[in-house]
């Protein structure tokens, strides 16, 4: 395989997680007697541009299909994050009723709804029919297609040249990352701004977040790699911010080469931090595979002991990262009875691979499990707040990454 960023050969492995079905391919009850397609989940590192990437086995249109089940609006903390983003961008870049805002991967309108509320013309680009429909029900204009240079040219000809393009947690999801970035350079006005948010590779490695690796994530990104990619495709990075979202993310601000904004010192500082951490060395990437094995074994030991002790363990959050963890560990419903999720689009379905049933959160209060394993560990605080009732019968919350820990509603308790 060649690097999808620069075309160099890939020879440095990051991790091999065996085989798994796509992490968002949730199953209906009538599909349980059918075979699933399990494909290799291997991640490699380019030693030329330092782009970390999965090997290709599935096309993007098969991963992001009409039944795509991830809807952003079912996380209250993510909605708050989106609303704060809109307020900051409006203030920083002087957006108003004469501006044009485009969001790539608009999902169910979780972010653009706050743009529209301010009377700013906006457009969403979203390839999955299920989420695009939900966005339209919010009164938003959405184009149901994949984004790239050709798409951007067509939108620009329609009058959608943008003052701001938002791209939250989508840069990692595109197989042709160069064509994708060229689209931003094409669609931006000469003085426009595009922002990208993505989980930071440094945090992934430091916190051993191997469960964030799955087929829908083609790339795992550092500022080092993104700067090279942007420069190759007509964009200049002029600022960067660190965010707490998704276990540690970056928000990167870019402009066309005609933009003229001065580059913040934060860019050079982050690049220096990455280099100091060793991001351009093979040794930096050697720690994730043994950490994943440890996390798997610790979780399995706990679940087996809990079963032997007659304890009931359930999950919360039918998240893609949870599916990576459960399938790598070989966990099935005999050890994790069910997983609760707030999204009605997942309730009544079954997790891919493990085929653990997904239920409504109300079942937690009625069945009173001893332990609730929070699979989207980045939302632990939100889940604890929403499910504080778990403590009333002495139940505990668990997370498995980066290490197995248990919590009550108010504090952590080490094993």
Give the SSE layout:
Layout: E1 12-20, E2 39-45, E3 52-54, H1 60-63, H2 76-93, E4 101-104, H3 112-117, E5 122-125, H4 129-136, E6 142-143, H5 149-157, E7 162-168, H6 177-187, E8 188-199, H7 201-206, E9 219-220, H8 223-232, E10 235-243, E11 249-256, H9 265-277, H10 288-308, E12 313-316, H11 320-329, E13 339-340, E14 358-359, H12 362-367, E15 371-374, H13 380-386, E16 396-399, E17 405-407, E18 412-413
Helix pairs in contact: 5-6
Please provide a brief summary of the model:
The protein is an alpha/beta fold and 415 residues long. 31% of the residues lie in helices and 21% in strands. The protein is globular, with a radius of gyration of 21 Å.
Which residues form runs of ≥5 with pLDDT under 50?
none
Residue share in helices?
25-40%
* Terminal CA distance: 42 Å
Q: Give the overall silhouette.
A: globular
Report the C-alpha radius of gyration, rounded: 21 Å
Indicate the structural class. alpha/beta
Oligomer: single chain
**Per DSSP, what share of the residues sits in E-state strands of 2 or more residues?**
15-25%
Mean of residue pLDDT values: 94
CATH superfamily of the largest domain: Vaccinia Virus protein VP39
CATH topology of the largest domain: Rossmann fold
Helix count? Answer: 13
Could you name the CATH class of the largest domain? Answer: Alpha Beta
Number of strands: 18
What number of domains?
2
CATH architecture descriptor name of the largest domain: 3-Layer(aba) Sandwich
Query: Strand order, biggest sheet?
Result: 6-5-4-7-8-11-10
Largest β sheet strand count, sense and barrel closure: 7 strands, mixed
């Amino acid at each position: 395989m060649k690097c999808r960023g620069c075309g160099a050969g890939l020879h440095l492995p990051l991790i091999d997680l065996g085989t798994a079905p796509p992490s968002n391919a949730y199953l209906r009850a009538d599909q349980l007697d059918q075979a699933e397609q399990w494909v290799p989940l291997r991640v490699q590192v380019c030693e030329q541009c330092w782009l970390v990437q999965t090997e290709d086995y599935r096309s993007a249109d098969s991963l992001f299909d009409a039944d795509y089940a991830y809807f952003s609006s079912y996380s209250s903390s993510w909605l708050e994050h989106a609303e704060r983003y809109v307020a900051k961008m409006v203030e920083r870049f002087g957006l108003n009723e004469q501006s044009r805002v485009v969001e790539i991967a608009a999902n169910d309108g979780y972010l653009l709804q706050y743009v529209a509320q301010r009377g700013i013309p906006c457009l969403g680009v979203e390839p999955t029919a299920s989420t695009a429909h939900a966005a339209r029900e919010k009164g938003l204009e959405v184009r149901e297609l994949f984004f790239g240079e050709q798409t951007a040219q067509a939108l620009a000809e329609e009058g959608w040249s943008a003052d701001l393009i938002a791209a939250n947690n989508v840069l990692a999801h595109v197989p042709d990352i160069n064509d994708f970035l060229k689209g931003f350079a094409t669609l931006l006005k000469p003085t426009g701004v595009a922002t990208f948010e993505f989980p930071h590779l440094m945090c992934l490695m430091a916190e051993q977040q191997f469960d964030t690796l799955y087929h829908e994530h083609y790339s795992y990104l550092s500022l080092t790699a993104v700067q090279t990619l942007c420069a190759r495709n007509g964009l200049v990075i002029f600022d960067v911010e660190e965010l707490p979202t998704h276990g540690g993310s970056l928000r990167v601000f870019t402009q066309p080469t005609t933009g003229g904004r001065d580059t913040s010192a934060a860019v050079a500082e982050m690049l220096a931090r990455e280099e100091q951490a060793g991001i351009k060395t093979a040794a930096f990437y050697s720690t994730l595979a043994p950490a994943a094995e440890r996390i798997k074994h610790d979780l399995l030991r706990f679940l087996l002991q809990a079963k032997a002790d007659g304890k009931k363990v359930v999950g919360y959050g039918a998240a893609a990262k949870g599916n990576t963890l459960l399938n790598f560990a070989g966990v099935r419903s005999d050890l994790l009875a069910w997983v609760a999720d707030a999204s009605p689009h997942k309730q009544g379905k079954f997790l891919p691979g493990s085929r653990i049933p997904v239920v409504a959160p109300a079942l937690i209060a009625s069945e009173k499990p001893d332990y609730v394993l929070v699979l989207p560990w980045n939302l632990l605080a939100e889940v604890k707040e929403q499910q504080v009732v778990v403590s009333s019968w002495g139940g505990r919350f668990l997370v498995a990454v980066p290490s197995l820990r248990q919590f009550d509603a108010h504090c952590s308790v080490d094993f």
